[in-house]
Predict the structure.
Amino acid sequence: MTDDHRDEGEPLPARENLLAAPSPVRTDGGSAAGADDVTLDPWGSASVADYRKLFEQFGIEEFDEVLPAVPNPHYLMRRGVIFGHRDYGAVAEAMRNDDPFAVLSGFMPTGDPHIGHKMVFDEIIWHQEQGGDAYGLIADLEAHAARGLSWTEIDEHTRSYLLSLLALGFDPDAGEIYRQSGNREVQDLAFELGAEANFSEFQAIYGFDGETDVSHMQSVVTQMADILYPQLDEPKPTVIPVGPDQDPHVRLARDLAERMRYFAVTEAYASFESEPEERVLIREAYDALREDGDDVRCADAADYLREHHADEAGARVIEKLENAGKEPVRPRVRFLDRRATDDAFEALIDAVDGEKRVFEGHVDAFDLSRDEAETLAREVELDHGGYGFLPPSSIYHRFMTGLTGGKMSSSVPASHISLLDDPEEGYEKVKAATTGGRETAEKQRELGGKADECPVYELYTYLLAGDDDEFATEVYEECVGGERLCGGCKEQAAELMREFLADHQEKREKMRPVLEELDIDVESPRRRA
Ligand code: TRP
Ligand code: SF4
């Protein structure tokens, strides 16, 4: 999640057909082309110059590709505000099949909750409404360690975030709200996960160095534990809705989930280990040679590949195949013993149906599919005291543009709207916002406004139009068609904002007693330092 010290945002990219989902890539309109450096720093000032780079450099996947698989997608998904994901297909599938799944996100209580946080609150709540186990957490340890906030400040903000989360519709009876500092299970899990990560890795991922506080590092393992916490009872697809600045955390959590597993399941064709690219080649040789009906030996496959793939990738696998000589090539799934107990490894061997071969540290199964093998490995792990984690999924939303143009920043109050802003003040801020309008009304009528570069239009799509796509489309079309002028458009947006804030704040008040009832200490018992 973003926090409000973080400067964020860039003008919304050009997106004709904004609502005609699934639409082609929402490019960044070329405006940011040339900005080569995309850094994802969870504690830095996250501005994403070019969202396309996130796909290319970091392997974030495009949300559009998974959108058709999502039942009743949320408006932030339909409108491309949620633009990227990792492995969200697993969550979408669980939703479609009514299988268990979870959603979790966390908030550093560093200031007042604002409309950027509202997006994430809404994402959690929507997944809860779709049947997910929902978790909202207050990252107070992180705020204390990485941002140096005192516990007094933290407590005040904690209350405020939670009131907004509840006011927007989070159901605390069905879901769970916690503070990092008050969740013993999370801290225990963090400790276990910390045994699988080391300092060099933190250096590489986060740029930590000899000056980095130990508590800051601890807050990282705590976040890893937060992300995996929904799976403590049973492994299930879990989505973490966040800003793309949190992607380094997601990647590490996916890695750690994997490293905690007792067994790794891979595919193999012979006794030696091979890389995925090598397996493609072996498969090709195997399929080609098998047509003759005879057993395919490793040496034959080597001959075949020498003829057809005399490149570098080929060379490595040819050597492996030659060394294996007369050994037959036979497809199989392989269970590698990673951190299983002896009992668990024995149990796995017993549980493998059909033909199998047991080696030191791995078992090959000849009659199991990859999926069957994955399921079996997880079952045995769970039966023997392991976690069986699935790699967590994530979705990423675009950062909002500041109302004054540029980035949204908490140090520039006019640039953002806090959920605690007086409704009148919210009204005024919208009225004073920068627009994508032309210099004169005539020009606007002639050329149309630039909705794609307009923070006010963004307010409509991210928030004010709510679920009403028709309304959002209407604003867009009227704007670019020159029928809508900025004065009236802002007036309408400002009124909606005033209404939203008044309504939200009223709901927050109603939630005070609900918050009191929750099993969470809003007053931290910690020393006030
Ligand atoms: N690091 C997040 C932020 O900067 C807060 C956070 C803590 C979080 N634990 C989390 C976010 C787990 C998502 C999931 O705002
Ligand atoms: Fe923005 Fe509205 Fe003006 Fe269009 S008409 S540029 S959406 S303020």
About this structure: The first helix runs from residue 51 to 58. Residues 1-36 have pLDDT under 50 and may be disordered. Residues 1, 3, 42, 104-108, 137, 139, 142, 223, 226-227, 240, 242, 246 surround tryptophan (ligand 1) (CB under 6 Å). The longest strand covers residues 102-107.
